[in-house]
Design goal:
With 209 residues, this protein is an alpha/beta fold. The chain is 56% helix and 13% strand. The chain has eight helices and five strands, in the order βαβααβααβααβα. The chain has a five-stranded parallel sheet, sandwiched between helices. The two termini are 19 Å apart. Bound molecules: thymidine-5'-diphosphate.
Length: 209
C-alpha cells in the first residue's frame, strides 16, 4: 500500500552500485518537467535519522544484529512519519535512497536474521507503507567494490563487510525483486549511467501518465 497522492520511488542495491547518481539524474529529469521532488535517504533522512545514521555506520565495534535492525527500523519509522508521508500527501514525487528492502537484504541475508521478521519489523515501523516503484541496481559485488575502492572514501561499517556478506545481500535483493515484479524494476548497473537513467525514466513516465 502506498501513501498519499504523490509518487514514491525507492532505489536499492549494494554499496557502489550508483544509486546516488541515478537519484540525481531522475530528480533533474522530473524537475525539468516542473514536478515537485523530494530527495531523501535512509538511514539519515530526518534530524533524528542523522543521529541514528552516525551510530549504525560509524560506531566503532560490533552492534548486535537485532539492535542494528531496530536502529534502521527506528530511523525508518520517524522518516516515513515526518518526511515521506507529508511529502506524498502534498502530491510530491519522493526519490528515496534505500528503504525496507535494504533491511531485509542487509540485516536479513547479511546478518542472517529471519527475513520475514525483519520485513515485518519495518512494515510495523512504517505502518505498512510500500513504494510505488523500487529500482534495484544490480551489480556483481566484486565490481562494486572496485568502484568503491577508486572513490577513495573510508568504508563504513557495512561497506567494510567481506565479499561473502555482499554476495548474500545481492541474492536477497534479486529474490525480493522476483517476488514482487510489479513493484520492482531491476536494472543491470554495469551499464552506462545514461542507459540506466533512460530505463528508469521510461518506467517512471508510465507511472506518472
Ligand atoms: P548508504 O546511505 O547507501 O551508504 P553511502 O552513503 O555510503 O552510499 O547506506 C548506508 C549503509 O547502510 C549501506 O551499507 C547499507 C546499510 N543499510 C542497512 O544495512 N539496512 C538498512 O535498512 C538500510 C536503509 C541501509
Amino acid at each position: 500500500m502506498s501513501a498519499g497522492r504523490g509518487l514514491w520511488i525507492t532505489l536499492e542495491g549494494g554499496d557502489g552500485t550508483g544509486k546516488t547518481t541515478q537519484a540525481a539524474l531522475l530528480e533533474e529529469w522530473l524537475r525539468g518537467q516542473d514536478r515537485k521532488v523530494l530527495r531523501t535517504r535512509e538511514p539519515g533522512g530526518s534530524e533524528v535519522g542523522v543521529l541514528i545514521r552516525d551510530i549504525v555506520l560509524h560506531h566503532r565495534g560490533d552492534i548486535a544484529p537485532r539492535a542494528e535492525a531496530l536502529l534502521y527500523a527506528a530511523d525508518r519509522a520517524h522518516h516515513v512519519a515526518t518526511v515521506v508521508r507529508p511529502a506524498l500527501d502534498r502530491g510530491e514525487v519522493v526519490i528515496q535512497d534505500r528503504y525496507l528492502d535494504s533491511s531485509v537484504a542487509y540485516q536479513g541475508a547479511g546478518r542472517v536474521l529471519d527475513a520475514d521478521e525483519v520485513r515485518g519489523l519495518s512494515l510495523w515501523a512504517a505502518e505498512g507503507a510500500l513504494p510505488d516503484l523500487t529500482v534495484l541496481l544490480d551489480l556483481d559485488p566484486a565490481l562494486a567494490r572496485r568502484r568503491l575502492d577508486s572513490a577513495e572514501k573510508p568504508f563504513d561499517r557495512l561497506e567494510a563487510e567481506r565479499e561473502e556478506f555482499h554476495r548474500r545481500v545481492r541474492e536477497s535483493f534479486l529474490a525480493l525483486a522476483a517476488a514482487e515484479p510489479e513493484r520492482f524494476l531491476v536494472v543491470d548497473a554495469a551499464q552506462e549511467p545514461d542507459e540506466i537513467a533512460a530505463a528508469v525514466r521510461a518506467r517512471v513516465a508510465g507511472l506518472l501518465a
